[in-house]
Fold these 3 entries.
Entry 1:
Amino acid sequence: MPLTAAEILREMRANPLTFFRHYWLTIAGGQVGVPSDVATFSFLDQAANTHGFTTGISGLLGRTKDRPAIRFTKQQGVALPNPDINNGFFNAYYVAMMQDENDLINAHYALPRNGPTSDANPDIMLTSQLSGCTFGIGTQAEGAQLVTHIQPNPGLGAVREHLGVTVRNQLADGIDSVFEREAQNEDTGYGNQGNRATIIGIRIDNRWNFYVQCYAGGGMGPLLEARKL
């Protein structure tokens, strides 16, 4: 049976970490510099599997399992007020990629922490695939949660320290976590230049929780790890 958006979102909300172990997720459709805001996404069951790591004794033995490949694609334009989940559409906060430049100002986005969940105030945050980008999470503040997603500027070449500095400067009021390639495992995670990452956020009881999934780049590369940030 094909997977449905309602089923996938239900699993993602119930246990994001288990969800990231069981599904290979890509997030597409974003563009550099497009404002962060509530956006409508479509769901696609890619009807294909990749290999994924296992945990426990199976993991220690290096065994893998087939993991279904799914995709969320950001739709262009204003978010729909009532997206049709039965046809695979739903709303989420989209945190846009901003390119790392010396004059970068206010690259962060304030995710609302309060208020009832609705299509206008979703409890899901999505951001485009990370392929060298850095994602920063600020300290939880009253009513808001600052996050930022910054993409390397090709003109800066190998001066990667600049990217981390930019992210930290954008979160000057407090930093909870910074996910960057330089601090990750090169063998099994984002630290390898060829690997990619997907980050999602789930709001529970007025608090945002963030999770990352890493996988080998190039097509549907195998899942390598999943963890909470």
Note: Residues 20 and 67 are 10 Å apart (CA to CA).
Entry 2:
Amino acid sequence: MNEVIDFYTQPVPHSQEHRSRLLQEIAFLEGRLTRLDATGDGDNAYERALGRTYHALLGLRRRELATLNS
């Protein structure tokens, strides 16, 4: 689990390749959140915690993408 946290909290260098990676990660996280909603997001503590984590990561990646775009 720590490897996942480390991966998602490292700053992304500025390049087209990394912009593409950010877009892929954003799409992945949005897809996971959509699937959680479709299966009854919040039905249990695990799903609620997972949803909060995905929302936090999504916000982080969107801010990083905005920084690249500015």
Note: The first helix runs from residue 2 to 9.
Entry 3:
Amino acid sequence: MSAFLMDAQEEKNNRFGTLRLVSGLEITGEYHVNASGEYVLTDENGDVFIFAPQEIRKLKGDVKVSKMSYPKFEQNVEFSTGGWGSLPYLCADVNYTFGVRMAKWLFLGVGVGLDLLPICVLDGTFGRFNRFDEEFGLTMSAGDYLPERFLNGAGYVQLRTYFNRKRKTMPFLSFSAGGYVSLPKCSLMISTSDQGPCDELSYPANGLMASALFGLDWRMNHKSSFYLAFGTHARQLWKITEYTRGSSLSAKRVFYFVPSLNLGFTF
């Protein structure tokens, strides 16, 4: 508790500016004065310097950290891929997120993206399910997942919290929730055998999606960074619950979870 209170007090007293040393060197960053009267400065790369008062000639741009320690607005571009589950299900996404740094440790934003390669594999043959009006039909039964469109749009909200934010490398947790949609509806010819008449099935290509990630953010300067994150991605898929040719057919939305790898750039 004492360590936490000391850290909180230093955060409260932190300032942002440029220290001009007697030697002529200038260093810019976030700094505070410790109990010994020394100046402890962290530059934009996360490197920490300690200077005695007699080493400092002048302070420039001395302002409170709350105004300068992090960018007010932040955006990122991210590429992610997930899959390799028991279904298996595979996707590759490109996302853009824009938001506000509500605090040095908290980011809240909204984003849009494209599902570039959603593939739902029913029998291990990827190429068989890249179209939705197959002339010969598909053999399906209860428990099978329906294929998705090749390209879908997505929208979401994102919450991200940073840890150990004084260093160049910062761990973080990220949570996103939203949905995806593609027009028009999917149309699929299915049958219970490889021969005989087929039944046409139409279903909307939209649903909910969410992700939870843990990652590392490598800060390049005050505004820009790269990050790598691992976690899980959940997406709703259509699953056939009952199918009898010429009699009944029903399906429902279920969440399917896959591991996810994300690479992004913040600016």
Note: The radius of gyration is 26 Å.
